[in-house]
Amino acid sequence: MTLRYGVVGCGRVFQRFHLPEVTRHEDVELVAVCDADEAGARKVLGPAADGVLVTTDLTEFLGAGRPDVVAVCTPNDAHTGPVLAALAAGAHVLCEKPLAADLDEARRLAAADFAGRLSVNLPYRFHELVPVFRDALPGDLHEVTLTFTTAGQRLWRPVTNWYGDPRRAGGGALLDLGAHALDLLGAVFGGPAEAVGCRVDRQGAEERVVAEVKLPAGPATVRIDRASRTLGLGVEAVGADGESVVLDLKRGEVRGAAGVVTASERQPELAAIRGFLDAVTGRAGGRTVPAAEALAVQELIARLYAVSVCVEGLTV
C-alpha cells in the first residue's frame, strides 16, 4: 500500500534532505505541499510538482490533499499549528528539530502525541558506527569531547533568513546543532545528562558554544561553531590511561587502538527521514525518534541556556 505524503514548508531543508528520500521511496507518493510562497514551492519541487497539490492553505492541504504522512519543515516558530493539525487529521508526522522555538510549545506538542504518531528528525543516533564506537569505549572514561562545526550561512542559505532571529529560531547554535550533538551523546552514553556550564559568543542567536554536561559515564564537553570554515562532527572519548577512541562522522570512521572501522553509509543526515518512512510504511528497519525524547534534549538545552554566560571572542 502506497502512503500519501505531504510537506508543510517547502524550503531548503525539504529540498536538500526530505525530497530525495520521498521521491525514491517506493511506498510513498508526494501528493501535497503547503507553503506561504506557492511559486517558490513549485520552483523547489521542479519536475516533482506534476500532479501535486500546491497550496498556501493548511486546511486545503489536509482536506483536499489527504496526506497519510506529513513532514513539517517550517521555521522553528511555525511548527505548532501544522503539527497539531496533522495529528488531528490522523497523519503520522515528522517534525524538524527542535520541536518548537518555545519550550512551552515543545511541551505542548509532545503532550499532544498521545498516539505515538509524532517523530523528530534527529538522525545521528542511528549512525551505523554508534554501536561500534560504544563497544570500543575505554572501560574507565576520563573525558568526552564532541565537536560540531559547520560553514554556517556561507554554505547554508535558507529561503527566508530566520536563523539569526532569536524569536523565530528560539536560540542559536546550541538549539540548532546542539540538539544533534546532545542526542548523539545520549545515544552513546545514555542519560539523562545534567547541565553544568555554558559559554556563548553572544546572547540570543549565538554562533559559537562551549557547553559542559555530566553524563552517566562522566563529564563531557560540547563544542559548536556554526560559523566555521570547515564541516565536522566527531566525538572523542579518552580513558584514564590516555587511550583515545574517536567517532568521526564526517569521515565515517571509528579510530582507536584496535584500528579503523569505516562506515558504508555516506549520508548519515538522512537516517531519521529514511527510518521514519520505513516505519510508517511497515518496512523492516523502520525507526523513529519519539517526541518525548526530542523534548528531553530540548529541555537540557534550555537548562544550559539558563546557566550560560556570554564570552566575547569565544573560540571553539
Structure report:
The structure is a single chain. This protein has 316 residues and is α/β, with parallel strands linked by helices. The protein has two domains: 119 residues, 3-Layer(aba) Sandwich (Rossmann fold), CATH 3.40.50; 163 residues, 2-Layer Sandwich (Dihydrodipicolinate Reductase, domain 2), CATH 3.30.360. Helices cover 31% and strands 27% of the residues. The protein has eleven helices and 15 strands. The strands form two sheets. It has a nine-stranded mixed sheet with strand order 14-13-12-11-7-10-9-8-15. Helix 4 runs parallel beside helix 5, helix 5 runs antiparallel to helix 11 and helix 9 crosses helix 11. The mean pLDDT is 94. It holds the Pfam family GFO_IDH_MocA_C3. InterPro entries: Gfo/Idh/MocA-like_OxRdtase_N, Gfo/Idh/MocA_oxidoreduct, GFO_IDH_MocA-like_dom, NAD(P)-bd_dom_sf. GO terms for molecular function: nucleotide binding. This is Gfo/Idh/MocA family oxidoreductase.
